[in-house]
Amino acid sequence: MSYLSKTDPSILNLITKETSRQEHGIELIASENYTSKAVMEATGSTLTNKYSEGYVGKRYYGGNEVIDEVEALAIQRCKSLFGCEHVNVQPLSGSPANAAVYFATIKPGDKVLGLQLDHGGHLSHGHPVNFSGLLYNFTQYQVNKDTGRIDMDQVREIALRERPKMIIAGFSAYSRNLDWQAFKSIADEIGAITFADIAHIAGLIAGQAIESPVPYFDIVTTTTHKTLRGPRGAIIMCKEKFAKDIDRAVFPGMQGGPHDHMTAAKAVAFHEALQPEFKVYAKDVIANAQAMAAELIARGHRIISGGTDNHLMVVDMTVKGVPGKEAEKILDEVGISTSRSTIPFDTRKPMDPSGVRLGTAAITTRGFTVADSKAVASVIDRAIEQRADKVALEGIRGEISELCKKHPLYI
Ligand SMILES: *Cc1c(COP(=O)(O)O)cnc(C)c1O
């Protein structure tokens, strides 16, 4: 970063500090990952200088010959990766992508069915403080209290009673596979549009470690920066019959000029995800999460639904007498980043909920194995148990340093 060091040492210093934090800590925030250097080079390229409102071959600005090729390549690679009929690669992030989906397909006030936020859903799936909940008439399904799993009979019952225009399947904090075909057949009974938000699991789907909704669903959105390991951003995939409406909703409906440097970085990430190694990555992410969950359960922790099929798990920390916010803080102090999380039927407040959410996408990228993931679970458990013991915590911090040294980032 020779230019920054000359012109803006303050920002360079902060970037260096953040890089060091990422290098020396264990990243378990389920929505985070480490992109490749190649992805970062594309995000830091001259493409950031360009305006290109419109789509390939139909721009409202001159000088877009190269950008057209970049966007066409991103589209082509995304289609080979996910097998979708149509894709829009311009959405700036996950929430704006979901806004574009609603804008393209339903009217304000229309009824939509989605998973409730504190049961694992996302803000943009109808939470009352979010634009989605403010503009549309959401009803929500939940997980079953005993199993911690989404109950498709309940989803069907609500769908038949409420007759929503759209049904959303997708989550930010749910550790089980979704039954895409069951969602689709319920939607077909009432003529509802099917919308899957695979923001969290897109990389696992791309790596063919879990089933894809793309063959069944009308519309599928995903962020590109979670398990998919690309730059911050999103895409909207859909059946051909929604293509025109989706494109119009993204531009000129919601956005102006696309971020062409991010489009290029998305193309780089799709190319990386098309390589055989990415299938190994996706399998390893799940194996690591399952090993971590098993070790935590063996140490007396309660995991919602009793385990995981994907990269994440929600742990009810009240069992250990340390609710989510306090657990997040203790783990932060020893060098483990997590995010506190509500648990289904939580009796505590969202700002100070019962659980923490853990994910293995980032540690798997830096090469953590099943044995390392068990070691991380052991460290989490001991940090919580021995939270009052300064010497023990010091020792734990040392173990974390060793694990991180064994698997360096960005060599
Ligand atoms: C992360 C996430 C999003 C939002 O992505 P942003 O890029 O943060 O706006 C949308 N939906 C789901 C299910 C998510 O997990």
Task: Give a brief description.
Helices cover 46% and strands 14% of the residues. The chain is built from 16 helices and 15 strands. It has a seven-stranded mixed beta sheet with strand order 4-10-9-8-7-5-6, sandwiched between helices. Strands 11-12-15-14 form a four-stranded antiparallel beta sheet.
Task: Give your account of this protein's structure.
This protein folds into 2 domains: 234 residues, 3-Layer(aba) Sandwich (Aspartate Aminotransferase, domain 2); 129 residues, Aspartate Aminotransferase, domain 1 (Alpha-Beta Complex), CATH 3.90.1150.10. The strands form 4 sheets. It has a 7-stranded mixed sheet with strand order 4-10-9-8-7-5-6, with helices on both faces. Strands 11-12-15-14 form a 4-stranded antiparallel sheet. Strands 1-13 form a two-stranded parallel sheet. Helices cover 46% and strands 14% of the residues. The longest helix has 23 residues. It is α/β, with parallel strands linked by helices and 411 residues long. The protein contains 16 helices and 15 strands. It is globular. A hairpin with a 2-residue loop joins strand 2 and strand 3. Bound molecules: pyridoxal-5'-phosphate. Pyridoxal-5'-phosphate binds next to helix 5.
Topology:
Layout: H1 2-7, H2 9-24, E1 26-27, H3 37-43, E2 54-55, E3 58-59, H4 65-82, E4 86-88, H5 94-105, E5 111-115, H6 131-135, E6 137-141, H7 152-162, E7 166-170, H8 180-190, E8 193-197, H9 202-206, E9 219-223, E10 234-238, H10 243-254, H11 260-273, H12 276-298, E11 302-303, E12 312-316, H13 324-334, E13 336-337, E14 339-341, E15 355-359, H14 361-365, H15 370-385, H16 390-406
Parallel strand pairs: 1-13, 5-6, 5-7, 7-8, 8-9
Antiparallel strand pairs: 2-3, 4-10, 9-10, 11-12, 12-15, 14-15
Helix pairs in contact: 3-11, 4-11, 5-10, 7-8, 12-15, 15-16
The structure holds pyridoxal-5'-phosphate.
Pyridoxal-5'-phosphate (PLP) is lined by residues 31, 93-95, 98, 122, 124, 170-172, 197, 199-200, 223.
